[in-house]
Amino acid sequence: MPIEITGLPTTQPTSINEGQTTRTRTDHKNPDQSKNESETPSQVDTVLFTETATQLQAMESEIVNVPVVDMERVEEIQRLISNGKYEIDTNHLAEKLLRFETQL
Predict the structure, then answer these.
(1) Beta carbons within 8 Å of 46's beta carbon, 6+ residues apart
(2) Radius of gyration (Cα) for the chain, nearest Å?
């Protein structure tokens, strides 16, 4: 049975057992639907999230707020380059390049 999602559902988390959470939402009708509401009964969908899924969802919301670039590090390197004090460890760079190439 296909599920049509037309918008964000209103959810209410409820604790069932340790490590499991249920979220219920009422079935939202499509405004273009030509059926009369009295012909179809109201349906409720139930989704169970394991503790792991809940933790993953929390971690994902935290990761969204982490910047992609460490601007402090970029500014530090820019300052060192402009002062002529930035030094490249060629041995370390060569090791990293070899490690990268062997992983391909």
Answers:
(1) 22, 23, 24
(2) 26
In contact, 27 and 44? CB cutoff 8 Å:
yes
CA-based angle 49:50:53, to the nearest 5? 80
Residues 64-101: pLDDT tens digits?
Answer: 888 889 999 999 999 999 999 999 999 999 999 999 99
φ/ψ (deg, to 5) at 99 = -60, -40
Tens of pLDDT, residue by residue over 18-28, are 444 445 454 44
Q: Give the per-residue pLDDT at 90.
A: 96
- Sign of the dihedral defined by the CA atoms of residues 3, 4, 8, 12, in that order: negative
Structure-token pair, residue 78: 């820019």
The answer to whether residues 23 and 9 touch, using CB atoms and an 8 Å cutoff, is no
